[in-house]
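Weekly modeling sync, notes
Attendees: S.R. (lead), two postdocs, one rotation student

Agenda item 3: backlog of single-chain predictions. S.R. asked that every request posted to the team notebook include the full sequence so nobody has to chase files. The rotation student volunteered to paste the first one in as an example of the format we agreed on. Action items at the bottom.

Example entry:
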Amino acid sequence: MDERAVRQAAERYPEEILPPYDGFMGLDGFDAICEFSRTFSGTSVYVPRIRTIFGACLEREILSQYNGANLREMVRKYGYSDRHVRELIKRTR
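Predicted structure, as returned to the notebook:
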């Protein structure tokens, strides 16, 4: 999965980022660590995979970029299987 592509998708569709992770967008370094501590202090934390947090953003990005002939490119760029991308396209058309 291309992390630059994930960042671009998240910046394009910030409303699709799963809470509470959406609160970390725009933060870097020290600020992100402090926000993480305030958000999760005293709890057991499960951190999902990047694709889970940004999944809806990535799917919207795939749909906006898919042109009928670039399935393999979408698979490589976003780290999904051929089947997942085909089902996503079928589900939305």
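Discussion: group reviewed the output briefly. The chain has a mean pLDDT of 91.
Action items: rotation student to repeat for the remaining queue; S.R. to check formatting next week.
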